[in-house]
Amino acid sequence: MLHNRIRWDDAPPRTSESSRRVLSFRPGRKYSVIGLGRLLGVWTHWDASESRTAPCLHEQCPLCPRASRWRGYFPALVFTPGTTSGTWEERVVEVTPDAAERLLRPDGSDLCASADLRGLAWRLGRFSHARNSPITAEQVDVTALAATPLVLPPEWDIRSDLLRLWGYSPSRAPEAVSDAIAHNKPYRR
Is 19 exposed, middle or buried (0-12, 13-18, 19+ CB in 10 A)? Predict the structure, then answer.
């Protein structure tokens, strides 16, 4: 019967959960960002046939003959300028290894052991107009970004957002993708 195969759910998803987007840095733009949780590292490939990044699936990875690259992701509030004062939006921020290192050791000290970025604030961006220019990360005092004190929302598990980014339904992701995300460790150089 058809009604047994339909995924029914009486409760709608929270708007912010269903509309979270991944922030990839456009050339020539800078963003004000406040971290909400831990940095999660994932080895990825560029899948030219799909025009998107895809996670490396280890032994089951059809893309492994291609070069892999590490990307870090973390939950954050990102300031979006608007017509009057702008808004803070929950986003997943994507960073390169160099930018992740600057986030985890802003003063050149040892890497932050926990990779917890909650409450830390930065101005992040690509200051050149080239798409592959480095992402710069300048740590700032959170009071420099927000005129009034912000109440930080709780950290959320960003893996479902990443699965959507890679074209998978979080509830139907292949086991290999879920395992690949679960076994990736925070970036350590």
Answer: exposed
